[in-house]
Design goal:
This protein is 62% helix and 0% strand. It has 156 residues and is mostly helical.
Length: 156
Amino acid sequence: TSYGSGLRKFHIFCDIFSIAEVDCLPAAFPLIHSFALWAATDLDPHDAVFADGTVFETVSIPTVHKYLAAIRAWHLAQGWPLPLSDGDRECLEFSLRGMACMQGASRKCPPRPPITLAMLRHLKSELFLSNSFDACIWAMVMAAFFGLMWFGEVSV
């Protein structure tokens, strides 16, 4: 996620809840707090709020932190005072930790099945090891499998 997507989500929030432009930015703590909890909440896509076709995608708590950094950066770029004091930040962190606990395992990806030797045999039968690209893929797969690595560790 980029700062642009954080600001866009913040403006969508302000539009949905009819927050006046002068109240959106510079933003006060209660507005930012409400935005952070709203962004991480599992909303009903059939809610009347989304009848106009507004797309809403619930985001994770770490993404909410990035959104908050975007709002802070926007305040700095505009020469406005920082939107959150240390006490505000502590309150916000407390709320987001609580939200993460409430969401629990519902936000985690289901476990992926393990790679088996049968899968490796099938993959090898589909590769042409005389082709340098296929040979490279096979070498990466073997390094990841026997080195007990995530595939991303050998493919970066």
